[in-house]
Amino acid sequence: MSVKVVRAYLDDTGNGTVIRGAIDIDSLKALEVGSYQREVQPVTTLQKIKRGYAQGVVPDIFLSMRGTKVRRGQNDGEFFLLDPTFIVDGLQRVTAAIQIVNDPTATTRPNVGAEVHLGRDEAWEREMFRILNLERTRLSSNVIIRNAAEDCSSASALLKLAGERDFALRDRICFGQNMRREHLITAVTYLKIAGTLHSRFGASLSSDVLAIVGGLDRIVDGQAGKDGIGERAFRENVRTFFIVIRDVWGLSQITVRETCPYIKYGFLHMLSLFITRMPQLWDDDKKRFRIERDVLKKMEQFPLNDPTVRDLCSASGQAEKVLYQMFLEHMNRGRRTNRFVDHQLLASLGGRPVTEADNGTTGVVEGDEAQTA
Q1: Of 63, 142, 201, 284, which one has the fewest beta carbons inside 10 Å?
Q2: What pTM was estimated for this model as a whole?
Q3: DSSP secondary structure string, 283-319?
Q4: How many CB atoms lie within 10 A of CB 154?
Q5: CA proximity to 2, closest of 84, 68, 72, 66
Q6: Parallel, antiparallel, or unpaired for β 222-223 and 226-227?
């Protein structure tokens, strides 16, 4: 069965003949799959591609025809590929497009752009598959966040804040493909910390940056008749968080980010989690937080130079829980009233005091005090 290409033209690249155009949707099933290909990816991956087709932002697929037999159609820009035509790059895109075509409820038709290389063989296809999939630089999530600022209020607010003259991390957040020497954190870390800081409002703690952006948009703008906290409060909370980092531990003196424990994601995540879970740090309207001088002083005394603490700041998983527990215990040490109590942690333990068996460190709330603080 031939493959029909529409809105197409011939292009002599100097390294072979190429047809550029779009695959007619009735020809999608005629495309062949070589043994070098990966398996079809999970439904979640295909769903993302389908959304891309709906928005018209799916890249062209890369095809190879093992032969040179081509027939022009009756219409302008119409070609028929008469030799076997193989998918080199784009199997998931073709699979998603076929599913859309077969879905009677679909409201859009996929436009499958293609670049077809003529007169190739399997050895060439295999090498191109390796180059396109192994050596290709994957688009950084930092760039995705930057681009999301065009349509998403939370990403827009974070991007604008990062460029403000008085922002503690101005010009020190990476929104590009690669970090530079002056950057201290990535846009991904920046976004995740904003998400954790506002998780008391239901913000997403997903690893998917666009899911976090979507969750933060609902926090900022509101949803289902519920008012959001507003962009101003959102920005001020993030601004205040990094002012705390600057004023308590310092930022201007950092020259090598790899050796600074309090700028690592583990520590920033722990601190933002502590802030969001402590109701006494939030104003009466519960939309903004502020930290009094005595609390800042206690934070400054946390032993960041302790080798164990430094290692925990760079670790993940269970280590994050241990670091959080150590910090909570430190903040409560010597504090007789208005103690910091993580009610979420207490609830997960059935209301009993935290012990070494729970987090690998000493408890931070003891006896009846844990119930009444």
Answers
A1: 284
A2: 0.66
A3: -TTSS-B---HHHHHHHHTS-TTSHHHHHHHH--THH
A4: 30
A5: 84
A6: antiparallel
pLDDT tens sequence across 83-142:
999 999 999 999 999 999 999 999 889 999 999 999 999 999 999 998 888 766 677 889
Burial class (CB in 10 A: 0-12, 13-18, 19+), 90: buried
Residue 371 included in any domain: no
Q: DSSP letters along 311-356, please?
A: HHHH--THHHHHHHHHHHHHHHTT--SS----HHHHHHTTTPPP-H
**Residue 359 reports pLDDT greater than 60:** no
Task: Decide which of 83, 109, 134 is a domain's last residue.
Answer: 134
Query: For residue 4, what is the DSSP state?
Result: E
Of the residues 252, 273, 300, which one is the last residue of a structural domain?
300
147 and 281 assigned to the same domain: yes
How many other C-beta atoms lie within 10 A of the C-beta of residue 104? 4
pLDDT at 203: 67
Cα distance between residue 32 and residue 40, in whole Å: 14
Contact at 8 Å (CB) between 185 and 173?
A: yes
Residue 188: inside a domain, yes or no? yes
**Euclidean distance between CA atoms 228 and 223, whole angstroms:** 7
**Interstrand relation of 61-65 and 173-174 (parallel, antiparallel or unpaired):** unpaired
pLDDT digits (tens, 9 = 90+) for 156-212: 999 999 999 999 999 999 999 889 999 999 999 999 999 999 999 886 667 788 889
* Residue closest to 234 by CA, chosen among 157, 332, 329: 157
274-288 average pLDDT score: 91
In eight-state DSSP terms, residue 121 is -
d(CA 21, CA 329): 64
Between CA 308 and CA 320, with CA 314 as vertex, the angle to 5 degrees is 80
Show the tokens assigned to 39: 């398996």
Q: Reduced to 3 DSSP states, what percent helix, strand and coil does the chain have, rounded to the nearest 5?
A: 45, 15, 40
Confidence of residue 270 (pLDDT cuts 50, 70, 90): very high
Owning domain of residue 31:
3-134
